[in-house]
Amino acid sequence: MATPVQLQLDSDDNIEAIVTVCDDYIDTRKTRLKESFLITPEVVTAHWRPKRSTDIRSADLEVLLETKAEIYLVGTGPDQYFPGALELQSFIKSGKTIDFMNSRAACRTYNLLASEGRKVAAAIIIESD
Q1: Domain ranges of the chain
Q2: Residues 1-48: pLDDT tens digits?
Q3: pLDDT tens digit sequence for 104-128
Q4: DSSP assignment of the chain, as one string?
Q5: Which of 52, 64, 77, 118 could staple 113 via S-S, CB 3.0–4.6 A?
Q6: d(Cα 125, Cα 64) in Å, to the nearest integer?
Q7: What is the fold, at CATH topology level, of the domain defined by 5-124?
C-alpha cells in the first residue's frame, strides 16, 4: 500500500478541496471517501458508480456535464486510462473536452484549479471490488 500524500491547500476554506490521497481512500476537508466520487468547488457527491477505470460508461460521464463546469477531469485510479469513443459520446456531442489522468494527478489538478476560482468538476475513481 502506498503512503498517503498530503496535498497543499489554498487558504479558502469555502471551497471543497482534497487534503489526503491514498490508494484506498481520499480525504476532503469534511469527509473520508472510500468509493469513487465527484467533486466541484461547491459540493462532494459520494458514490460515483465506476469501481474501476474499465467500468466507465457514457452515463457516468454525463453526470460530469450536469455540473456545468468549464473544466472536466477524471481520475482513473492508480493508472491513466482513456475510455473509448462510445463512452465519450456525451462530451463529443457537447463539444466539451475532458482530461483523463491517474487519480493522484487528478486530485492535485482539481485542487489547483479550484483554488484559482476555476469552475472545475472532477470524477475520481477509488478502486474497489
Answers
A1: 5-124
A2: 566 665 555 557 789 999 999 999 999 999 999 999 999 999 999 999
A3: 999 999 999 999 999 999 999 999 8
A4: -PPPEEPP--S-TTS--EEEE-SS-EEESS-EE-S-EEE-SS-EEE--S-SSGGG--HHHHHHHHTTT-SEEEEE-TTS-----TTTTHHHHHHT---EEE-HHHHHHHHHHHHHTT--EEEEE-----
A5: 118
A6: 13
A7: Hypothetical Protein Mth938; Chain: A, (3.40.1230)
Question: How many CB atoms sit inside 10 A of residue 93's CB?
Answer: 9
Q: Is the pLDDT of residue 129 over 90?
A: no
Average pLDDT over residues 65-84: 97
Average per-residue pLDDT for the chain: 92
